[in-house]
Amino acid sequence: MLVGGGHAHVEVLHQFAASPLPGWRITLLTREAMSPYSGMLPGVIAGLYREDQALIDVRALAARAGAEALIDRATGIDLAAKRVHRAGGEARPFDLLSLDTGATPDTARIPGAAAHALPLKPIDALLPRLRALLAAPPARIGVVGAGAAGVEVALALRARLPAATVVLVAGTAGVLPGFPETLRSRVTAALAGRHVDCHQGDDVAEVFAEGLGFARSPPLPLDAVLWATGAAAPAWLAETGLARDRAGFLRVDDCLRAIGRDDVFAVGDCASFDPLPLPKAGVVAVRQGPILARNLRAVAEGRAPGPYRPQKDWLVLLSLGDGRALGTRNGLVAGGRAAWWLKDRIDRRFMAKYQGA
Ligand SMILES: Cc1cc2nc3c(=O)[nH]c(=O)nc-3n(C[C@H](O)[C@H](O)[C@H](O)COP(=O)(O)OP(=O)(O)OC[C@H]3O[C@@H](n4cnc5c(N)ncnc54)[C@H](O)[C@@H]3O)c2cc1C
């Protein structure tokens, strides 16, 4: 039973389509038939891609893998009875379970955020929300959180809505915290050059219908607020009885198995890798996909699973929304149209693998 059509499970289905697992019935239980690929979402917002170019038809992918697709929401796991509960029907039994259900927005900490901000997560709900936003474009938009997703979304909105005021609210952490200084300063210059205002040095204390309140600085009037801060663990995981970290994400060992379980795996944003902290990034889930596929096959065939060894560094390419990108790897930074060409090529190749007939 695969729960969630996230970035790792699409690879598992792809591999099971190429090389079936004899004697096993595979079920994909996921909330949406079309799973968005996060790498292309800012490009969709900017108008560089159509929505369908960034969506993976997981129902079709499941069919190619000989798997049953249940488009429904998992609501709980009964580990003793080995069953997954769901919102729209009877619980389903499993022998082997894998969870790739992503994260939820981190809106609970800030008063008013849940009521007034548009969260970027979960990403399967993002496109309908953005469609509604862009149908009646606001004059002043704030994007709270200046990690990679917040930066890309602010720049994409700038490209899509040239007349709007776009403010990136970076708080005390600043723009792209944790990234190399050279990239941070290049991105800050790119934001300024594209007239994206940057609000820094003070954290959001409250979200109102009319804008943002801060700890020290004056309120910022806005017509729409997008919430791009860190990820929170989906609440339903708390009831599963699976081991969780302090933030509520599912703890997994080096083989991506839930701690203390031989029959449950978890990957991507919903998982917390015990051996070392990993960012909540699509690239991590993508890299875990082949290891997960191999380990599910191993356990199904009575063999021992193998370890996932995270890369120490990887290529990060940020879309600037206008057919240019900035990239960094091993501390080096490069940018321009060539960087966008590379990002576009990587993303299209990724999608071609899973969208294929
Ligand atoms: C705008 C934006 C741009 C981003 N760009 C990048 C980028 O360029 N590079 C990068 O590395 N990261 C990027 N990220 C981060 C990236 O989106 C996440 O880290 C990534 O999506 C995590 O993948 P995942 O497989 O864990 O989960 P997801 O991709 O979130 O997939 C979760 C799946 O589980 C399903 N699901 C959820 N709950 C349930 C349930 N209860 N029952 C059944 N199904 C369920 C969902 O429908 C979905 O199919 C971006 C994020 C945003 C918001």
Automatic annotation (TrEMBL):
Gene3D superfamilies: 3.50.50.100. Keywords: FAD, Flavoprotein, Oxidoreductase. GO terms for molecular function: NAD(P)H dehydrogenase (quinone) activity. GO terms for biological process: aerobic electron transport chain. Residues 2-289 form the FAD/NAD(P)-binding domain. SUPFAM superfamilies: FAD/NAD(P)-binding domain. Its cofactor is FAD. Pfam families: Pyr_redox_2. NCBIfam families: Nterm_to_SelD. This is Pyridine nucleotide-disulfide oxidoreductase family protein. It comes from Falsiroseomonas stagni DSM 19981.
